[in-house]
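Suppose you are handed a protein chain with no further information: no name, no annotation, nothing but its sequence. What can you learn? This example shows the usual starting point.
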Amino acid sequence: MIVSIIWSLLLSWVIGLERERQDKPAGLRTIMLVCFGATLAMLFAREIHSGSSIARIPSHFLAAIGFVGSGSIIVFNKRVEGITTAALLLPMTVVGFLCGIERYFLATVSAVCIYAILKLKRVRLVSKNKRRRLR
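A reasonable first move is to predict its three-dimensional structure. Written in structure tokens, the prediction is:
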């Protein structure tokens, strides 16, 4: 149990630190709390598992995280902001779940993939017609 919590905090710290450096709304504390909470939910579900489906508690947790994520999306000056932040909360929740069921390798690979995706630069695709009009 303790290893699950520590691993969850370590992986979420790496991702959260990256978000903090980029000065994003879901920074270090938010990402760590989401992942930590997911790990605790999974540990709790495993402890009380008695005939009922173990997936019930994590599924409710995912729904709650979806609600939190939707609150981070705003429209500002005709631009939608916060979509990456909202999208990040769900996979970080799953990383926490994976730590809670002691699947550390898969959790680590997932966190590395999330980190790599966050490091991708924004690419703006411009069609040929738009390029001609810009000249």
